[in-house]
Write a structure and sequence with these properties.
The chain is of the alpha+beta class. It has helices at about 10, 40-45, 65-75, 80-85, 125-145, 150-185, 190-220, 225-230, 230-245, 245-255, 265-270, 275-290, 300-370, 380-410; strands spanning about 50-55, 60-65, 95, 100-105, 110, 115-120. It is a multi-pass membrane protein.
Length: about 425
């Protein structure tokens, strides 16, 4: 009979929590980690997400794709998909890839390809607005024979919606913050200061978001290579033309493709289309042989499109910077007013201290004559009046000397 007892050297080895159900460590199946093993992680990683698919004809539908299916469909690395995940907080980004454009701008998160757009559904209604507007523009583009590529129409709409959204937020902030600053300048109170503090925090956060979109567009405009990567329709047409030429047939006949035994990426190995992968590689080599000298001649259209929205974003950023400068000027004005009040209090305290000193001297004279002793001064009644007169004049002279000293040291303001 087979011994099922645990060997001594295995008893001290801890069982990993990620072990799948049915793995034997000591000859016994351990089912206590159901759902937390490799199979559980795989299921969670393959959970589907709703996307809005918009094709180049202006038709849209809601589809459900998991991460692996989406990466296979778009040919994107996994790190690009994380930019679109609403769970993660990433700044605004526009990335040009071989077969797609990854757009993550504020509330618009989508994957733009040559013949379709995969738009992530959102709960704030921005995805619905983008969907309806893009479908209308695509149909209108066909009716008007507009030669702007589909991917540029999709990118233009994303930039337009983001620019309009940021500009409207800045306008609302301006309408709200200017009256509050005027009221704070005239009446300094704790309520007004707290209100301005909240508005300034909102202003700084909005400035950071607009600055990121501004820098992303500027960085994209400065790189002709990244802009050339975004001509998806042109690349697709060139690839189709290349596949129909003799160059591709010669590559097939000479065996110039990737061997099926060669290691390939996980997203491509399961598709069962090595010929397509080899054609993509051959086309990439063919495109690279063309050189980068022709890139500058083909990016003017995209550069002009980006420049138009760059000017709008730059104008929005200028409004925010002007608003921030106005807040800083108001803060400086309030600090000057508070410093002036503080100086007046110090001056009043100085005068009050001098008057207290003089009154104390008069009280000393009163205390001396209030002692219980006999003196000839008290024999005549008029002497008491003279004591009062002399004491008062002496105190006035001493206080005047204090004032002259303060004036000389410029401790008191001089009014002209």
């Amino acid at each position: 009979m087979e011994d099922r007892r645990t060997p001594p050297f295995l008893a001290s080895i801890p069982k990993p929590a990620s072990s799948p159900e049915g793995v034997r460590f000591d000859g016994v199946v351990n089912p206590s980690f159901h759902g937390f093993g490799a199979s559980g992680l795989k299921k969670r990683g393959q959970s589907g997400r709703s996307w809005i698919q918009i094709d180049s004809s202006g038709n849209s539908q809601v589809i459900t794709l998991d991460k692996i299916a989406l990466l296979r469909r778009c040919g994107l690395p996994s790190r690009d998909f994380r930019l679109l995940d609403p769970v993660f907080v990433y700044p605004s980004t526009i990335l040009g890839r071989e077969n797609a454009i990854v757009v993550s701008l504020e509330q618009v998160r989508c994957i733009i390809m040559a013949d379709e757009v995969l738009l992530m559904r959102s709960s704030d209604g921005s995805s619905t607005h983008y969907e309806s507007e893009l479908c209308q523009r695509v149909r209108r583009m066909k009716d008007q024979n507009d030669d702007l590529p589909f991917e540029f129409k999709s990118l233009e709409l994303a930039l337009e919606l983001v620019s309009a959204s940021l500009d409207s937020q800045v306008t609302e902030l301006e309408v709200e913050i200017y009256p509050v600053l005027e009221e704070l300048a005239s009446s300094i109170s704790t309520t007004n200061l707290e209100h301005v503090r909240r508005l300034k925090s909102h202003l700084l956060a909005l400035t950071h978001r607009v600055q990121k979109v501004h820098d992303e567009i500027e960085q994209l405009m400065d790189d002709d290579g990244d802009m050339a990567e975004m001509y998806l329709t042109e690349k697709k047409e060139r690839m189709e033309a290349y596949l129909s030429t003799d160059g591709y047939l010669n590559n097939i006949q000479s065996g110039n493709w990737v061997s099926q035994s060669a290691p390939v990426s996980p997203t491509c190995s399961s598709t069962g289309q090595p010929e397509k992968d080899s054609s993509n590689m051959s086309f990439s080599k063919h495109e690279s042989s063309r050189g980068s000298s022709t890139r500058g001649r083909h990016v003017e259209e995209l550069e002009m499109l980006l420049e138009a929205y760059f000017v709008g974003i730059d104008n929005t950023l200028s409004k925010l910077l002007s608003l921030k400068e106005y807040i800083d000027d108001t803060e400086d004005f309030i600090n000057i007013k508070l410093d002036n009040v503080r100086n007046q209090l110090i001056q009043f305290e100085l005068l009050l201290a001098a008057a207290t000193f003089v009154v104390t001297l008069f009280a000393v004279v009163t205390g001396v004559f209030g002692m219980n002793f006999e003196d000839s001064v008290f024999d005549t009644a008029s002497n008491f009046n003279w004591v009062l007169i002399i004491s008062s004049i002496s105190c006035a002279v001493i206080y005047s000397c204090f004032l002259l000293y303060f004036k000389h040291k410029k401790l008191l303001p001089t009014y002209h």
